[in-house]
């Protein structure tokens, strides 16, 4: 009889965690067969530069030109995001996360309206609402926008999440999913007096996600925890058992080529000591965020970077339209 091949760490991870592809590259998604996929302006900018996406760029521009909207560039951006999202959904069996313009991160009503328009575009393209997650930055205004959208049956992914106070507020708002950014938390600690290197279980980003996961399970929150922004496979392995993990193609490949054992690290039946945290209204939330230098700085930086890549993508579309 032939010897049974050992499962890779990626296959072992799939047994305990929903694996999500952190990319807009269809070929990479097809190769690693994740359940879901996530996109953001930075990933869309990379995807838009691939030759196979050029027809989608031209189609998005042509579609926007047919409308009477005063902001055809904005319409082109949304149309492109939806067209790429629809392509991704032909490959993944689950959901795609599509980011709302980060320039609206401090405007609750504008975020809600833009989100509803994105969902309408998906519906017009024949995509069911239950296959879409709207990504919104975890500002106070963004969390409130997610709360309003969730009440209308539109599920949200609260992203750029770095602090426990953001996670607690997101769960209280009834968000479908949060994306804590593991690697960016590590980056901040390394740059601000932390250790030059950390063991995976001591990694500040890993510790943050584990704390949030345990808090959610202890308090019976339904909000899904999806670790994101990984710097190495050690971080991923230290979070094996988390609800979901969104992973770049490079790290998916590393996990797929490693056949050593992957033990479970997070378990809903073993959440450790009780974690106490009171529900906050706006003032204490803002005070807690202001007291958390890491979360404040990384949230602001993340919004700026997403906006910068959004503008680059808009410029690309503008050049093609002229």
Notes on the protein architecture:
This protein is an alpha/beta fold and 322 residues long. 52% of the residues lie in helices and 11% in strands. It contains 14 helices and 8 strands. It has an 8-stranded parallel barrel, surrounded by 8 helices. Helix 3 (41-48) packs parallel to helix 14 and helix 5 (72-89) crosses helix 14 (293-321). The chain is globular and about 60 Å long. The mean pLDDT is 93.
The percent range for helix content is 40-55%
The general outline is globular
Average pLDDT works out at 93
- Secondary-structure element string: HEHEHHHEHEHEHEHHEHEHHH
Secondary structure tally, helices: 14
Uncertain runs: none
Oligomer: single chain
How many individual domains?
1
What Rg, in angstroms, do the CA atoms define?
Answer: 20 Å
Strand order of the largest sheet: 1-2-3-4-5-6-7-8
Q: How far is it from the N-terminal to the C-terminal residue, by CA? A: 65 Å
Top-tier CATH class: Alpha Beta
Could you tell me the strand content as a percent range? 5-15%
CATH topology tier name: TIM Barrel
SS elements, strand count: 8
CATH superfamily: Aldolase class I
Secondary structural class = alpha/beta
CATH second-level architecture: Alpha-Beta Barrel
- Give the biggest sheet: 8 strands, parallel, barrel
